[in-house]
Amino acid sequence: YIKTNWDFTKLVGISLQIIKNEILNAEKKNQGFILECLTDTQPTKELYHLLQQLGLSIDYAISLDMCDRDDILLSRITNRWIHVNSGRIYNQLTNPSKKIAIDDATGDALKQRNEDKNSE
């Protein structure tokens, strides 16, 4: 999975509790639910384990290939900048901030995460 500066273990635990509550509410109402996640990541493995604990299984899985050109995907990722406090995301090609590396709303500096930087 992608490393971040967050305590990822704590985030996964909180997220799984929220997901568990939503699944249980949907099951009480005899409703289904849709989960969006990446395969072969630790949070996804935890999610599968949670479903097993609840006696549920995945009925359908859909894989969407959103981009077959790595250069486009790389360009979208390496031009991404984030306002840490709000979570606002800018992309210098498709959704640029008015001033480079500055948040439009607050004037705070934007951050480019290590995993978003081009390592070539």
Can you describe this structure in just a few lines?
35% of the residues lie in helices and 5% in strands. It is mainly α.
Structure report:
By secondary structure, the protein is mainly alpha-helical. Helix content is 35%, strand content 5%. The protein is built from three helices and two strands, in the order αααββ. The protein has helices at residues 8-28, 42-53, 70-78; strands at 80-82, 89-91. A two-stranded antiparallel ribbon has the order 1-2. A hairpin with a 6-residue loop joins β1 and β2 (89-91). The longest helix is centred in the first third of the chain and has 21 residues, at 8-28.
Features:
two-stranded antiparallel ribbon; 120 residues; mainly alpha; 35% helix; single chain
How is the quaternary structure best described?
single chain
Q: For the report, how would you describe the main beta sheet?
A: 2 strands, antiparallel
Order of helices and strands: HHHEE
Output mean pLDDT.
Answer: 77
The percent range for helix content is 25-40%
Radius of gyration: 18 Å
* Secondary-structure class: mainly alpha
Tell me how many strands there are.
2
SS field, number of helical segments: 3
